[in-house]
Amino acid sequence: MSEARWYVVHTYSGYENKVKANIDKTIENRHLEDQILEVRVPLEEVIEQKNGVQKVSMKKLFPGYVMIHMYMNDDTWYVVRNTRGVTGFVGPGSKPVPLEEDEMERFGIRQEVKVSFEQGDAVIVLNGAWEGTVGVVQSVNEQKESLSINVELFGRETPVELSFSEVKKME
Between the CA atoms of 72, 29, 138 and 144, what dihedral angle is there, to the nearest 10 degrees? Predict the structure, then answer.
């Protein structure tokens, strides 16, 4: 199998989140987690000022487009192409063209994450709801660049899945 690459899919305008949800559901139903790794609707933070009040909101960076990190093969192409709301892959004819590394960097996507976590490593969460929480790595998924740690929630140990970029190894 070749390496996973980022592809761009054109959707009906306004259907980006629905397409993401449909593809995520199909991945789960058909057990394609190891072939279609991530589906993203790129967003940017926008500060609007109305009546002297600043309001921060999230706006779609590319309306009508969804980014997908996947291994391109007949099955994954078929699943994505035949998802309701998808009009096609970006590329000439029916041949999808993956994003180049410099294009991905502009969107904050790193091709290679040079961090290695192992089961039993102590980590601290850097941001999000669990910021500052210290946990022990229970499992690592290198393809999805995520790991699972246990955190205490309502007095019980609860597993939480986080991306490599959300945690840092404890020294």
Answer: 20
